[in-house]
Design a protein that fits this description.
Pathway: Fermentation; pyruvate fermentation to lactate; (S)-lactate from pyruvate: step 1/1. By secondary structure, the protein is α/β, with parallel strands linked by helices. It has two domains: about 140 residues, NAD(P)-binding Rossmann-like Domain (Rossmann fold); about 170 residues, Lactate dehydrogenase/glycoside hydrolase, family 4, C-terminal (L-2-Hydroxyisocaproate Dehydrogenase, Chain A, domain 2, Alpha-Beta Complex), CATH 3.90.110.10. It has ten helices and 15 strands. The protein has a six-stranded parallel β-sheet, sandwiched between helices. It has a four-stranded antiparallel β-sheet with strand order 1-15-14-13. Strand 11 and strand 12 form a beta hairpin. Helix 2 packs across helix 9, helix 4 runs parallel beside helix 5 and helix 6 packs across helix 8. The protein starts with 16 loop residues before the first helix and ends in a 5-residue tail after the last helix. The N terminus is likely disordered. The structure holds 1,4-dihydronicotinamide adenine dinucleotide and pyruvic acid (PYR).
Length: about 350
């Protein structure tokens, strides 16, 4: 029987508000109806892969967690170390192998394998090394889990998400990059710190490239439901544009600083990706800024490219892109960010 739209989805005059709020994904495949055991495979058991694995375990997100890495001893060591925590964790089957057949039937494959930046190095510099790895990693994931969703974390994440999409042949709603979900968390932390409020009450998005050309959407920031820029204007509180730019600069510099201090970033990306896994596997329909096929949204036309936009995530993957109002300047910066990604992508020859 055809399901009628819920009353709450209908606005005045029978308008379907959900349709107005989100633009649909053109090539979306229907969500898997499987409600059985949930299985996540994490490819790459390094700093990032293990931070993600441990956050997923503590948050009780899956029945089965699989680790894959190219280094068998390191992999077995990490698996045993997590298994030895069984008495303190929700029951989860943890296994590991260098053989991709272990990933068969995964609901979600999270790819973190690959080279990482050294201090001062840009994410975009990692491209050629990590594309070569993806050519070995993506085909077996697709072979063993043809219905899975791919969640890419390795850098440069936007271009590698495009590479994974091309290599997989999946519809774009099932290929997602962790994108600026992490940058937005850094942004929310800094704004919360300035205002002395809880970061969870700050609604703020960074979009575009996960990297130096990212775009802060100042015009849509709200704290506890109060739109910040119009509040400052209404209260005639003067603020320097430079102050805002400095907060965004601090977001961009944040990763470089952590890498300079401890060699890599791990905890925040672990929580960021676990939040995405929850929305995807538990069908939360939450809105996250993640790397998606951007063609056709926000005036980005022409070539296929992935960059972060606020996207609604559920069991089917990307369910729609939010229609946030962008100022002319934000639109221009988003286009510049898209051009930065396209320039790097043009070197790929894929
Ligand atoms: N998107 C984001 O927000 C973030 C992305 N990253 C990126 O995540 C990636 C991983 O970073 P880390 O974990 O710190 O590096 P890491 O060096 O600690 O770990 C990388 C792992 O990949 C494994 N690996 C290499 N080739 C493989 C293959 N063919 N198959 C399976 N595993 C393979 C290595 O053995 C190693 O264990 C980097 O590209 C880094 O830039 C890191 C933080 C945030
Ligand atoms: C390394 C990286 O991409 C980050 O922490 O943002």
């Amino acid at each position: 029987m055809q399901k009628s739209p819920s009353a709450s989805a209908l606005g005045p005059g029978g308008l379907d508000l959900s349709q107005a709020f989100f633009k649909p994904i053109p090539d979306a495949s229907p969500p898997s109806t499987s409600k059985g055991n949930t299985k996540i495979s994490v490819i790459g058991a390094g700093n990032v892969g293990m931070a993600i694995a441990q956050t997923i375990l503590t948050q009780d997100l899956v029945d089965e967690l699989v680790l894959v890495d190219a280094k068998p001893d390191k992999l077995r060591g990490e698996m045993l170390d997590l298994q030895h925590a069984a008495a303190f964790l929700p029951r989860t089957k943890i296994s590991a192998s260098t053989d991709y057949s272990i990933t068969a039937g995964s609901d979600l494959c999270i790819v973190t394998a690959g080279a990482r930046q050294i201090a001062g190095e840009s994410r975009l510099n990692l491209l050629q090394r990590n594309v070569a790895l993806f050519q070995k990693i993506v085909p077996p994931l697709v072979q063993y889990s043809p219905d899975t969703k791919l969640l890419i974390v390795s850098n440069p994440v936007d271009v590698l998400t495009y590479v994974a999409w091309k290599l997989s042949g999946f519809p774009s709603n099932r290929v997602i990059g962790s994108g600026t979900n992490l940058d937005s968390s850094r942004f929310r932390f800094l704004i919360a710190d300035h205002l002395d409020v809880n970061a969870q009450d700050v609604q703020a998005y960074i979009v575009g490239e996960h990297g130096d050309s990212s775009v802060a959407l100042w015009s849509s920031i709200s704290v506890g439901g109060v739109p910040i820029l119009s509040f400052l204007k209404n209260q005639q509180i003067a603020y320097e544009k430079e102050t805002l730019e400095n907060i965004h600069k601090e977001v961009i510099e944040g990763a470089y600083e952590v890498i300079r201090l401890k060699g890599y970033t791990s905890w925040a990306i672990g929580y960021s990706v676990a939040s995405l896994a929850r929305s995807l596997l538990r069908d939360q329909q939450r809105i996250h800024p993640v790397s998606v096929l951007a063609k056709g949204f926000y005036g980005i036309d022409g070539d296929d490219l992935f960059l972060s936009l606020p996207a609604r995530l559920g069991r089917g993957g990307v369910m729609g892109i939010t229609n946030v109002h962008l100022t002319t300047e934000e639109m221009r910066r988003l286009q510049d960010s898209a051009n930065t990604i396209l320039q790097v992508q043009s070197e790929l020859g894929i």
